[in-house]
Amino acid sequence: MPDSKLIWKLPPGQPPLAGRDVHIWEASLNKSGERFLSLEQMLSQDERARARQFKFETDRNRFIAGRGLLRTILGSYAQTDPAQLHFTYSKRGKPALRDISGQSMLHFNVAHSKDLILIAVTRACAVGVDVEWIHPINDAEDIAARFFSPRETAKLMALANEQRIPAFFYLWTRKEAWLKATGDGISEMLNQVEVSFLPEEPASVLAISGNVEAAQRWTMMGLPPAPGFAAAITMEARDLQFSCWQWPG
Questions:
Q1: Would you say residue 156 has pLDDT above 70?
Q2: What is the CATH number of domain 8-130+240-246?
Q3: Which residue of 79, 134, 189, 237 lies most exposed, with the fewest beta carbons within 10 A?
Q4: Exposure pattern of 109-124 as b/e (b: 16+ CB <10 Å)?
Protein backbone atom coordinates (compact mmCIF):
# COMPACT_ATOMS: atom_id res chain seq x y z
CA MET A 1 0.00 0.00 0.00
CA PRO A 2 1.13 3.62 -0.49
CA ASP A 3 2.48 5.44 2.54
CA SER A 4 -0.57 7.24 3.91
CA LYS A 5 1.64 9.65 5.90
CA LEU A 6 2.85 11.34 2.72
CA ILE A 7 0.96 14.51 1.86
CA TRP A 8 1.19 16.28 -1.48
CA LYS A 9 1.19 20.05 -0.98
CA LEU A 10 2.13 23.24 -2.74
CA PRO A 11 5.70 24.29 -1.93
CA PRO A 12 6.50 27.41 0.13
CA GLY A 13 8.52 28.99 -2.65
CA GLN A 14 11.57 27.05 -3.81
CA PRO A 15 12.10 24.26 -1.24
CA PRO A 16 15.77 23.76 -0.23
CA LEU A 17 17.30 20.41 -1.18
CA ALA A 18 19.82 19.23 1.42
CA GLY A 19 22.05 16.18 1.12
CA ARG A 20 19.54 13.56 2.39
CA ASP A 21 16.42 15.24 1.03
CA VAL A 22 14.35 13.60 -1.68
CA HIS A 23 11.69 15.72 -3.38
CA ILE A 24 8.95 14.11 -5.46
CA TRP A 25 6.96 16.46 -7.67
CA GLU A 26 3.50 15.63 -8.97
CA ALA A 27 2.13 17.52 -11.97
CA SER A 28 -0.46 17.26 -14.72
CA LEU A 29 0.64 16.87 -18.34
CA ASN A 30 -2.63 18.36 -19.53
CA LYS A 31 -1.33 21.79 -20.56
CA SER A 32 -2.69 24.16 -23.16
CA GLY A 33 -2.40 27.68 -24.49
CA GLU A 34 0.42 29.92 -23.29
CA ARG A 35 1.38 27.52 -20.53
CA PHE A 36 2.00 24.75 -23.08
CA LEU A 37 3.89 27.07 -25.43
CA SER A 38 6.18 28.26 -22.64
CA LEU A 39 7.11 24.65 -21.87
CA GLU A 40 7.64 23.82 -25.53
CA GLN A 41 9.99 26.77 -26.01
CA MET A 42 12.39 25.33 -23.40
CA LEU A 43 13.02 22.15 -25.39
CA SER A 44 16.26 21.44 -27.23
CA GLN A 45 16.36 20.60 -30.92
CA ASP A 46 16.72 16.88 -30.25
CA GLU A 47 13.75 16.95 -27.87
CA ARG A 48 11.66 18.70 -30.51
CA ALA A 49 12.71 16.03 -33.01
CA ARG A 50 11.67 13.28 -30.58
CA ALA A 51 8.30 14.98 -30.09
CA ARG A 52 7.66 14.95 -33.84
CA GLN A 53 8.09 11.17 -33.90
CA PHE A 54 4.93 10.59 -31.87
CA LYS A 55 2.04 9.47 -34.05
CA PHE A 56 -0.75 10.80 -31.84
CA GLU A 57 -1.09 14.42 -30.77
CA THR A 58 -1.99 13.49 -27.17
CA ASP A 59 1.24 11.51 -26.75
CA ARG A 60 3.26 14.26 -28.44
CA ASN A 61 1.83 16.96 -26.20
CA ARG A 62 2.40 14.87 -23.07
CA PHE A 63 6.04 14.41 -24.03
CA ILE A 64 6.51 18.14 -24.65
CA ALA A 65 4.83 19.09 -21.38
CA GLY A 66 6.82 16.46 -19.47
CA ARG A 67 10.18 17.59 -20.78
CA GLY A 68 9.30 21.21 -20.18
CA LEU A 69 8.26 20.49 -16.59
CA LEU A 70 11.44 18.47 -16.00
CA ARG A 71 13.55 21.35 -17.27
CA THR A 72 11.61 23.86 -15.16
CA ILE A 73 12.00 21.85 -11.95
CA LEU A 74 15.67 21.00 -12.47
CA GLY A 75 16.41 24.57 -13.49
CA SER A 76 14.93 25.85 -10.23
CA TYR A 77 17.27 23.64 -8.18
CA ALA A 78 20.29 24.35 -10.35
CA GLN A 79 19.49 28.09 -10.52
CA THR A 80 19.90 27.84 -14.28
CA ASP A 81 17.76 28.84 -17.23
CA PRO A 82 15.76 25.66 -17.97
CA ALA A 83 16.38 26.03 -21.70
CA GLN A 84 20.16 25.98 -21.07
CA LEU A 85 20.23 22.61 -19.31
CA HIS A 86 22.03 19.83 -21.18
CA PHE A 87 21.34 16.13 -20.73
CA THR A 88 23.49 13.08 -21.25
CA TYR A 89 22.09 9.56 -21.59
CA SER A 90 23.28 6.17 -20.39
CA LYS A 91 23.44 3.16 -22.70
CA ARG A 92 19.99 2.25 -21.42
CA GLY A 93 18.65 5.75 -22.10
CA LYS A 94 18.51 7.05 -18.52
CA PRO A 95 19.02 10.85 -18.61
CA ALA A 96 21.41 12.79 -16.38
CA LEU A 97 22.44 16.42 -16.19
CA ARG A 98 25.83 17.46 -17.40
CA ASP A 99 28.05 18.90 -14.65
CA ILE A 100 26.80 22.24 -13.38
CA SER A 101 29.62 24.48 -12.26
CA GLY A 102 29.56 25.16 -8.50
CA GLN A 103 26.58 22.82 -7.90
CA SER A 104 26.49 19.46 -6.17
CA MET A 105 25.15 16.76 -8.47
CA LEU A 106 21.40 16.53 -8.97
CA HIS A 107 20.04 13.00 -9.34
CA PHE A 108 16.58 12.71 -10.82
CA ASN A 109 14.12 10.31 -12.35
CA VAL A 110 10.82 10.72 -14.19
CA ALA A 111 7.72 8.57 -14.61
CA HIS A 112 4.34 9.26 -16.13
CA SER A 113 1.04 7.52 -16.75
CA LYS A 114 -1.92 9.06 -18.54
CA ASP A 115 -1.78 12.81 -17.68
CA LEU A 116 0.11 12.32 -14.41
CA ILE A 117 3.87 12.86 -14.14
CA LEU A 118 6.18 12.30 -11.16
CA ILE A 119 9.66 13.84 -11.02
CA ALA A 120 12.01 12.82 -8.19
CA VAL A 121 15.05 15.00 -7.38
CA THR A 122 17.80 14.44 -4.80
CA ARG A 123 21.49 15.06 -4.15
CA ALA A 124 21.93 11.80 -2.20
CA CYS A 125 22.31 9.12 -4.89
CA ALA A 126 20.64 7.59 -7.95
CA VAL A 127 16.87 7.42 -7.66
CA GLY A 128 14.13 5.46 -9.41
CA VAL A 129 10.44 6.34 -9.54
CA ASP A 130 7.52 4.71 -11.31
CA VAL A 131 3.78 5.34 -11.61
CA GLU A 132 1.04 3.31 -13.27
CA TRP A 133 -2.68 3.74 -13.80
CA ILE A 134 -4.48 0.87 -12.07
CA HIS A 135 -6.71 -0.93 -14.56
CA PRO A 136 -7.89 -4.48 -15.31
CA ILE A 137 -5.42 -6.60 -17.30
CA ASN A 138 -6.18 -9.95 -18.89
CA ASP A 139 -2.67 -11.43 -18.78
CA ALA A 140 -1.68 -10.58 -15.19
CA GLU A 141 -0.82 -14.20 -14.42
CA ASP A 142 1.40 -14.54 -17.51
CA ILE A 143 3.20 -11.27 -16.72
CA ALA A 144 3.68 -12.38 -13.12
CA ALA A 145 5.18 -15.69 -14.19
CA ARG A 146 7.66 -13.89 -16.46
CA PHE A 147 8.75 -10.94 -14.31
CA PHE A 148 7.97 -11.83 -10.69
CA SER A 149 9.61 -14.36 -8.43
CA PRO A 150 7.77 -17.66 -7.75
CA ARG A 151 7.09 -16.50 -4.19
CA GLU A 152 5.68 -13.15 -5.36
CA THR A 153 3.53 -14.84 -7.98
CA ALA A 154 2.11 -17.30 -5.45
CA LYS A 155 1.25 -14.48 -3.01
CA LEU A 156 -0.36 -12.42 -5.78
CA MET A 157 -2.52 -15.26 -7.09
CA ALA A 158 -3.66 -16.10 -3.56
CA LEU A 159 -5.32 -12.70 -3.17
CA ALA A 160 -9.02 -12.14 -3.71
CA ASN A 161 -9.95 -10.85 -7.15
CA GLU A 162 -10.69 -7.31 -5.95
CA GLN A 163 -7.26 -7.08 -4.29
CA ARG A 164 -5.22 -8.72 -7.03
CA ILE A 165 -5.19 -5.92 -9.62
CA PRO A 166 -4.14 -3.11 -7.22
CA ALA A 167 -1.55 -5.46 -5.68
CA PHE A 168 -0.22 -6.27 -9.14
CA PHE A 169 0.46 -2.59 -9.82
CA TYR A 170 1.97 -2.01 -6.35
CA LEU A 171 4.31 -4.88 -7.11
CA TRP A 172 5.10 -3.73 -10.63
CA THR A 173 5.82 -0.09 -9.77
CA ARG A 174 8.06 -1.04 -6.84
CA LYS A 175 10.13 -3.43 -8.93
CA GLU A 176 10.29 -0.96 -11.83
CA ALA A 177 11.40 1.86 -9.50
CA TRP A 178 14.22 -0.37 -8.23
CA LEU A 179 15.23 -1.22 -11.78
CA LYS A 180 15.30 2.46 -12.76
CA ALA A 181 17.40 3.30 -9.69
CA THR A 182 20.01 0.75 -10.76
CA GLY A 183 20.16 2.32 -14.22
CA ASP A 184 20.19 -1.09 -15.90
CA GLY A 185 16.77 -0.89 -17.52
CA ILE A 186 16.76 -4.61 -18.28
CA SER A 187 13.26 -5.94 -17.64
CA GLU A 188 14.59 -9.51 -17.32
CA MET A 189 16.16 -8.40 -14.01
CA LEU A 190 12.77 -7.72 -12.42
CA ASN A 191 12.51 -11.24 -11.04
CA GLN A 192 15.85 -10.79 -9.23
CA VAL A 193 14.42 -8.31 -6.73
CA GLU A 194 11.66 -9.28 -4.31
CA VAL A 195 9.51 -6.55 -2.79
CA SER A 196 6.57 -6.28 -0.43
CA PHE A 197 3.18 -5.56 -2.00
CA LEU A 198 0.39 -7.17 0.02
CA PRO A 199 -2.49 -4.98 1.31
CA GLU A 200 -1.49 -2.90 4.35
CA GLU A 201 2.14 -4.04 3.96
CA PRO A 202 4.73 -1.20 3.98
CA ALA A 203 6.87 -0.95 0.86
CA SER A 204 10.33 -2.47 1.16
CA VAL A 205 12.97 -4.38 -0.77
CA LEU A 206 13.02 -7.91 0.68
CA ALA A 207 15.82 -9.61 -1.27
CA ILE A 208 18.04 -9.10 -4.30
CA SER A 209 19.02 -12.31 -6.07
CA GLY A 210 18.12 -14.04 -2.81
CA ASN A 211 20.41 -11.79 -0.74
CA VAL A 212 18.51 -10.26 2.20
CA GLU A 213 21.50 -8.21 3.43
CA ALA A 214 21.87 -6.52 0.04
CA ALA A 215 18.20 -5.55 0.17
CA GLN A 216 18.67 -3.78 3.51
CA ARG A 217 20.80 -1.10 1.83
CA TRP A 218 17.74 0.09 -0.09
CA THR A 219 14.91 2.42 0.86
CA MET A 220 11.55 1.97 -0.85
CA MET A 221 8.45 4.11 -0.43
CA GLY A 222 4.97 3.58 -1.81
CA LEU A 223 3.52 6.84 -3.12
CA PRO A 224 -0.17 7.90 -3.26
CA PRO A 225 -0.05 10.33 -6.22
CA ALA A 226 -3.75 10.28 -7.13
CA PRO A 227 -6.81 8.02 -6.83
CA GLY A 228 -6.54 5.11 -9.24
CA PHE A 229 -2.74 5.19 -9.53
CA ALA A 230 0.08 3.18 -7.97
CA ALA A 231 3.58 4.62 -7.59
CA ALA A 232 6.84 3.97 -5.79
CA ILE A 233 10.29 5.47 -5.26
CA THR A 234 13.48 3.52 -4.53
CA MET A 235 17.07 4.46 -3.61
CA GLU A 236 20.16 2.60 -2.44
CA ALA A 237 20.50 4.68 0.72
CA ARG A 238 19.04 4.96 4.20
CA ASP A 239 17.91 7.78 6.52
CA LEU A 240 16.37 9.81 3.72
CA GLN A 241 13.92 12.68 4.12
CA PHE A 242 11.03 12.51 1.63
CA SER A 243 8.81 15.45 0.65
CA CYS A 244 5.94 15.33 -1.82
CA TRP A 245 5.14 18.52 -3.72
CA GLN A 246 2.42 19.55 -6.13
CA TRP A 247 3.67 21.63 -9.02
CA PRO A 248 1.70 24.91 -9.11
CA GLY A 249 -0.90 24.96 -11.86
A1: yes
A2: 3.90.470.20
A3: 79
A4: bbbbbbbbbbbbbbbb
